[in-house]
Design goal:
Blueprint lengths: L1 H6 L10 H16 L4 H19 L10 H10 L3 H20 L8 H11 L12 H14 L1 H13 L3 H5 L6 E2 L4 E2 L14
Antiparallel strand pairs: 1-2
Length: 194
């Protein structure tokens, strides 16, 4: 059997627990090698430590995790956005484990197929402020929080996210053409949480 597995490139010499694998995958591969953003890191960490590991146990062997277990975890999650995040995390993590021969087959494949039928994200209702509300907001911000006035003014007039506004520099503004170049974001560092 060993010779056949070696010949078919289907032999895996390692046997990791779910906790060992996800710790390695998240902290070494995703943070250090892939250099994921802080928000992505927090999403992955939330799914792993709040949903996956508690459901199948930290000491469960990675190769013992089944597609059925992933489907049960998926069905137990009530929030559609977290369901989508779980699909994303399991797809990326188990694909990595499969490609590096930590597991013989990828249990997340069945989840991906099944989840497409079950995830129906409704468009999020975002309140739209009137011109009068924006004027009041800017007025009170300038009066009570003067340090936040310019970033708020830029965000309101340019339609930028907070992280994009904070990353703006003087040289990002072309005063001749009246163009502002939004080409980066400034977010929290993941190195603080490692």
């Amino acid at each position: 059997v060993l010779i056949a597995e070696l010949a078919c490139n289907n032999y895996w010499p390692f046997s990791y627990t779910a906790e060992e694998f996800f710790d390695f995958w998240l902290y070494h591969h995703q943070l250090r090698e892939q250099k994921i953003a802080y928000a992505t890191y927090m999403t992955y960490r939330n799914v792993i430590y709040n949903y996956l590991l508690p459901a199948f146990g930290k000491k469960t062997k990675l190769e013992d995790i089944t597609a059925q277990q992933l489907l049960e975890i998926f069905d137990s999650i009530s929030y559609q956005s977290v369901r989508r995040q779980m699909c994303n995390v399991t797809n990326i993590a188990f694909q990595y484990a499969f490609q590096h021969h930590y597991i013989k087959s990828n249990p997340a494949l069945l989840l991906q197929i099944s989840a497409k039928k079950k995830i129906h994200l409704e468009p999020r209702e975002v309140p739209v402020f009137s011109v009068g509300q924006i004027q009041k907001l800017l007025f009170y911000c300038k009066k009570d929080y003067p340090d936040m006035y310019v970033p708020l003014l830029l965000s309101v007039t340019l339609g930028t996210r907070i992280s994009e506004t904070l990353a703006l520099h003087y040289y990002d503004i072309d005063f001749t053409s009246l163009i502002v170049y939004i080409n980066k974001q400034l977010g929290r560092s993941t190195s603080e949480d490692i």
